Amino acid sequence: MAAFAQSAPCWADVQLPDLEAGKRFYGGLFGWTFHAGDGMPFADAYSDGKLVAALAGKRDGRMPTAWGVYFSTDDIAATVALVRRSGGQVITDPVPAGRAGVLAQAADPGGAVFGLWQAGERAGFEKRNAPGSFCWTEVRTRRPERVDPFYEEVLGFRGTDTGPPADGTVPFRMWSPAGTEPGEDTAVGGREVLGDDVPEMLPSHFLSYFAVADCDRTAGTAVHLGGRIPSPPADTPYGRTAVLQDDQGAVFAVLQPNGRLP
Question: What is the dihedral of CA 92, 97, 102, 105, to 10 degrees?
Fold first, then answer.
């Protein structure tokens, strides 16, 4: 079992109304194969025989259809206590997931939801930063003045700003785990500010990225499978990226890295 550094993103899953439809979409998009949970409405996803994510059927229709990301912690009870002390909200107190580990869910002061994972027999991703697997996550928020210190306190992140941009808005911030030198080489996630051009109805959220070999082809395949392209392929300093939506409404991003992936 490969261990994850404290506060590193270690897992991602998606909550879907129709689990079987989700398997068809992501199997067709990323080439994932699946192993269903014993009597449970979820399926582990594999790429090249290695764990990369999970799909879960929603038990409550009021739950959002969305991808979630989990951060590793060595002491989930202590991290949950920090969430409360730092102005966040605990949505799900620590609960065992069999022998795999212990999970909790929380929201930051801007309302973005994330998960915490204390590993048992399962550390998390068995493959990442390679085509068909998770490679990056960023919180998109309207409240950086509250969110930045929250993640520094709760997860021990240390930030590196990439700006300031020419228009004077808040620069993008990369997060590096405690004990590392902040910068692109150590970053595990980021923070982006939602601008005035983003509808107010869109809440703060985490956007997770999956690496692909060809961004444009993947975007085209998503549409062929019934999905949408909220943000079409575009070049960035780290590669070509697009924001996609699956055929049930869950939003995620893909990145064709150019070798500069943190």
Answer: -20
> With a threshold of 0.85, does the pTM exceed it?
yes
Topology of the domain comprising 1-143+199-262: 2,3-Dihydroxybiphenyl 1,2-Dioxygenase; domain 1 (3.10.180)
The domain locations on the chain are: 1-143+199-262
pLDDT (tens digit, 9 = 90+) per residue, 16-25? 999 999 999 9
Which residues touch 158 (CB under 8 Å, ≥6 apart)?
152, 175, 176, 177, 178, 180, 182
